[in-house]
Design a protein that fits this description.
This protein is mainly α. It is 57% helix and 0% strand. The chain is built from six helices and no strands. It has helices spanning 2-7, 24-41, 48-69, 73-80, 100-109, 114-122.
Amino acid sequence: MIDYNTHLTTSGAHVIPGCWRQHPALSQTVPVLYWAWWDAHRNPAATIRSAVEFHQRDLPAFQERLDGLLVDKATAGKCRAGRHQDAPDADKVRLGAVTLAATADADQRGPDSSDVLLHATFGAAAP
């Protein structure tokens, strides 16, 4: 998230808060956005057209939906201010083998690896 928040945001409403993994819709969308970015910029078949399409289509579409992916504008504001509130236990999403504590530790280490994102997005086993 550090690279995205540093290089791709143009307003506070575009910032992805550190608690993004605790928002099910956002935790499904961020990895897809990463792979769209990778395909447009790092894929050996990438072209300038694919990069332009990412920046004109995919990125703005994500940024327009971001508050909704955080649940609503009120929740988004709290999360961006570092005041995330967990849902009641009955509403929490079970993340399987990946625990929230482990993902919080990963945030402290820096950007996610593509293997973690691939697993989070598609359930694929890491190579």
